[in-house]
What we know:
By secondary structure, this protein is mainly alpha-helical. It has 2 helices and 3 strands; from the N terminus they run βββαα. It is rod-shaped, with a radius of gyration of 35 Å.
Amino acid sequence: xxxxxxxxxxxxxxxxxxxxxxxxxxxxxxxxxxxxxxxxxxxxxxxxxxxxxxxxxxxxxxxxxxxxxxxxxxxxxxxxxxxxxxxxxxxxxxxxxxxxxxxxxxxxxxxxxxxxxxxxxxxxxxxxxxxxxxxxxxxxx
Length: 141
């Protein structure tokens, strides 16, 4: 059953073009969502975009933002710890400087001046369930 004038019919109507660039080349596109036609377009260049790709891009942006915020939060905690350390160090420097000028510290409990050279021992704040933050906040009026 051979026909001499038969033409080859392509039953697969799609051609895959893998070497093409994205339609929208905008760096920070603003998306317009058409809820009636279920389309997404770029406000800057007007290109019609794939909604799944847009959703994926938005999710990726938020993921990067969340990672950046976590990193910044960690940095902030380190900076606050360093700030507390510096403030404690400055407190010691202030006591030393004032003692050299003939000034003595005042007890926060009884409000009497005392000679810091009479301090004969220290305790571990952690052993007593205290932290430096608690000590500083109880010292403030």
